[in-house]
Amino acid sequence: xxxxxxxxxxxxxxxxxxxxxxxxxxxxxxxxxxxxxxxxxxxxxxxxxxxxxxxxxxxxxxxxxxxxxxxxxxxxxxxxxxxxxxxxxxxxxxxxxxxxxxxxxxxxxxxxxxxxxxxxxxxxxxxxxxxxxxxxxxxxxxxxxxxxxxxxxxxxxxxxxxxxxxxxxxxxxxxxxxxxxxxxxxxxxxxxxxxxxxxxxxxxxxxxxxxxxxxxxxxxxxxxxxxxxxxxxxxxxxxxxxxxxxxxxxxxxxxxxxxxxxxxxxxxxxxxxxxxxxxxxxxxxxxxxxxxxxxxxxxxxxxxxxxxxxxxxxxxxxxxxxxxxxxxxxxxxxxxxxxxxxxxxxx
Length: 347
Description:
Blueprint: E1 5-11, E2 14-19, E3 40-45, H1 51-68, E4 74-78, H2 83-99, H3 105-112, H4 120-133, E5 140-142, E6 151-155, H5 169-187, H6 194-201, H7 204-224, H8 240-252, H9 256-259, H10 276-291, H11 296-301, H12 305-318, H13 322-332, H14 337-345
Helix pairs in contact: 1-5, 2-3, 2-4, 5-7, 7-10, 8-10, 8-14
């Protein structure tokens, strides 16, 4: 289901976009994700960042939701590198949680402004450390929250959008699209039980590989239609084929245990080779699309995942068993780079 969006409303460092149609493919019930009749996209930006950063992220989320559907409200929180600004943004987050009756303010601050791993303030800390070291590390994540009926995201400072390190702004736009695809994945799962949701999401190669492929191809398609906001060009070109070719180079350059792994063996984030799931998984989805059709995930896989389970939905969408898909894909990956890149040109 796709919903059209109304005009953006900009106020201070918080930006929001309300949908003129509500709902999604989910049913509201005890133990299921609560529904909102009018899903809203909101972007929250730390005070040490320009509001223009939030405007680019909001515009990108608008196009992603128009293209792929807006199923629950979205909150996208962007941290900078200043500690005081970061704590202020976390405080705003926790005040919001208490106001909505979702989380006690003090408990929220203890968790999100504390030292626990994957806390919100950690995004500010990681950004500050990266800036100090000059490595321009960045990260973003969908951090819940099904029990609140929202998609909650957090991000370190987007270097490309803030003109740091010569990084193309399109790298950050692609990251936003990658994270939003995780929202799409979660939107077709109605249970709030964590373990059940995790099982229906599937193995890491699929979760991250499909988000990465859809972000890369989505960026290509939206750019071709002139639908993405202008961003700093950076010091190198950002293009779909070259990005996917770079993934091939990384995959082909792997050695040792990770270099000998087949696709479906990369199942969990705890696996030391899980990082390969992003690159190898992205190419697996390109291969799946070549076998089927471009909208196979949105039209064939996700609508069936709760009914059939992850494996059943995948095999139904692919038209063959998971093992046969794996065998065919790994054989495909033995071809030359030129042969493999041909499937991208056919899409």
